[in-house]
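Problem 12. The chain below contains 606 residues. Write out its predicted structure in token notation.
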Amino acid sequence: MKIKRFFMGFFRKKTYIGVDLNKSLLARCLTTLDLTALGIGATLGAGVYVVAGKVAKESAGPSVVVSFLIAAIASIFAGLCYAEFGARVPRTGSAYIYSYVSVGELMAFIIGWNLILEYVIGTASVARAWSSNFDEIIGGHIKDFFNSTMPMNLIGLAPYPDLFAFLITVVLTSILCIGVKESSRFNNIFTVLNVSVILYVIICGFWNVDIKNWKIPPKTMSNGTIIYNPHIGSGYFFPFGISGMLSGAGTCFYAFVGFDSIATTGEEVINPQKAIPFAIIFCLSLCFVAYASISTIITLMCPFYIINEDAPLPFIFDKAGWYVSKYIVGIGALFGLSTSLLGALFPLPRIIYAMSSDGLLFAFLSKINKRFKTPLVATAAAGLLAATMSALFDLKSLVDMMSIGTLLAYTLVAFSILLLRGSVDSINVDSDSENEQKSEIIQSGISFREYRRNILKRRSVRPSMITGFISKFNSYCLIVSIFILDLLLVQDTLIKTPALLFFIILFIIWIIFLCITLFIQPENQKKISFKVPGVPWLPAISILINLYLMLKLPVDTWYRFGIWMAVGFLIYFFYGLSHSKEGKKNSSSNTQLLFDNSKVGYTLSH
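Solution.
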């Protein structure tokens, strides 16, 4: 019995009563505009100032525009799934809460633990990038000073301690501790400045475009001799072929990471059911327009193969002779990285707060400061951890770990949509109707499960116990099948063999069949302000893309990921499993039900 309870704890789900969804200890002060600015600030940073030039030079050439389009479509698929959950569960915690209410506690912990990793590394890396960009503007004096006075010659650490990056993170953490509205104002101001600089780049850049840079041939003539340029590939719009463009799309996908920070603010938004879906979709759409425009400007102003991949925008304006614009863009990069830094740090304490509030992390992290109405301890702890990493560690080898946490979260959110659509129960249960149900159960002397079965028989538009089981079983089959298909697709050199091609086609047909079976099942009819269109097709495509990109990550990244998860499992099994509030709630509910049952003379079916 104890062993059964131990394993059942992995699958217990978080439940919300309707009146609890809008009740929060956090201050509800964020508007739709604040949310949109937060998402844009978190997303529209490194993608503009680094990723666009890097992908254009190394992977896609002028077709980087198409790479961003594909990445945007994949991100919007994930964003739509986030938007539905934001409407269903307007609570702090993002994908952690979403998976908790639909998949189970263990999966929720895994997601939450990886989100912590994502945001910690994201904050530290952006802080380091901010420091480096500022140092370039002032002539590299910070780097020279610390290299000469405080060098570090240890493997895995940075060449020198970046105390400036540490200070930046501490200052921003202090702003977040004071209050969410104050940090939102800071973010809004810098987001406006960042977008203004991007508009400046687009407007000025169109004065210097040359369509010939999209038609560069792979060879040139000089004194009657044909000269091949090895950096151009096959030339023209797709110099590295379709495969290069798709490879670039994988890199561009990470430029859209950050919009999920919107979903972590559910308890601090004035009207979360409508504000969260709108902010996510508008944020991703605007970011794609910005990325596509900047990519077009970069590749039309100069040949893609000579772009400075570390600072492409200042480089192209310097080459064009617009020297003042070079410094304007350099300062704009600081604005963009500032909002990215806030966007990476802002969700981190809220994930920690949500997990500790549920008992899965240590309780002291869930305390809300009475004066500032913020999770002060969680914010300070998260900021100090990120600041220390930004000062001491060389983060190049850790950046890929952000991708695993993000893509795994996207995958589980899409999977959760499939589970919820065909489920009998809804996340949001109205408290009055629930009390009526309990009263009727006590009076009738039948089990709650039998009562619910009878109700479902009278409401044919809703899923039944049988259709709910079919939907759940097929959803699990679908995600496993997609994973196997991605394992086959990721082996580029083996796909050409007839046997593997046969299995690929077979799995595609099987996946389509599973999607059809899910499509014909009755849906949960809970009314919410936003639902993902095209279920199950859209979530299935999202899962396919996310798992494929995860499997493309280096093996070393998976080793480091394994170490991080080992630490997380130690915390969960030795603390979270026994301190889980859902576990205590279920235990007390079962005791109360058994006590009630002894009064009316019936047995609760389990």
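Discussion. Confidence is low (pLDDT under 50) at residues 426-448, 454-460, 593-606. Students who got a different answer should revisit the alignment rule from Section 12.3.
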